[in-house]
Design brief:
Blueprint (H helix, E strand, L loop, with lengths): L2 E5 L3 H6 L11 E5 L4 E2 L14 E3 L1 E7 L15 E9 L1 E2 H10 L4 H4 L5 E3 L3 E2 L10 E6 L2 E7 L7 H9 L9 E3 L7 E2 L5 E6 L2 E7 L2
Parallel strand pairs: 1-12, 3-8
Antiparallel strand pairs: 1-2, 4-7, 4-13, 5-6, 5-12, 6-8, 6-9, 10-11, 10-14, 14-15
């Protein structure tokens, strides 16, 4: 299975990283290996290879059947569930790699860097571009997102990615993070919510 991630998909998040807030010509795509998955409420242990690890709360879409070169109008047929996930980023490494024009894999794809909540069937939602989600740390909200604010919507992302990769059952798409990213610290309790329902909970150790 593949973990496909989208960068710079919310204008306010682009601005907080010092990037242009305009819609990119094409979605910004990067990948994580399946060893990055952390689920079932297991804790995230902060590694020793970087100084700062940031949380990035995101809506995650689960692919439900095989698809290639999918037209946007048919994309909704190829996913069946969503959840809140956390794309954990080794921020200081990322800044170094970007300054040198190097790939992102080491700062984005390390073990445990793709935290997953419990999936919720898409039938529970009236429209994919009308879903609220949020991330709390120790009971305080640090990120709030709404899918209407995506620069590229879910169906656009599914269609675009399928031009390059054969999508398979179980593949995941992390659809990008809204404003409010920040550093993780030992002892924190992280929770993710979809429309007020908690679907994600884990600790930082």
């Amino acid at each position: 299975m593949k973990i496909i991630c989208v960068g710079m998909n919310y204008a306010d998040h682009c601005k907080e990283l010092g990037e242009k807030a305009t819609k990119p010509v094409n979605p910004v795509i990067f990948m994580k290996p399946d060893s990055a998955i952390l689920k079932g409420g297991k804790p995230f242990f902060i590694p020793d290879f970087a100084k700062r690890f940031d949380y990035e709360g995101e809506l995650v879409v689960r692919i439900s059947k095989l698809g290639k070169n999918i037209a946007p109008r048919f994309a909704h047929r190829y996913y069946d569930a969503v959840t809140v996930g956390v794309d954990i980023t080794a921020r200081d490494l990322q800044e170094h790699f970007r300054s040198e024009g190097l790939p992102w894999e080491l700062c984005k794809g390390f073990d445990g860097s793709a935290v997953l909540g419990d999936f919720v069937p898409v039938e529970r939602f009236a429209h994919m571009q009308n879903i609220h989600f949020r991330l709390d740390i120790d009971g305080e909200t640090v990120q709030q997102g709404h899918t209407v604010d995506m620069l590229y919507g879910v169906d656009e992302l599914v269609s675009y990615v399928s031009r390059f990769f054969m999508l398979k059952t179980g593949d995941l798409i992390f659809t990008g993070t809204p404003i409010g990213v920040g550093p993780l610290k030992i002892g924190q309790h992280i929770e993710g919510f979809l429309e007020g329902e908690r679907v994600l909970a884990f600790n930082i150790k």
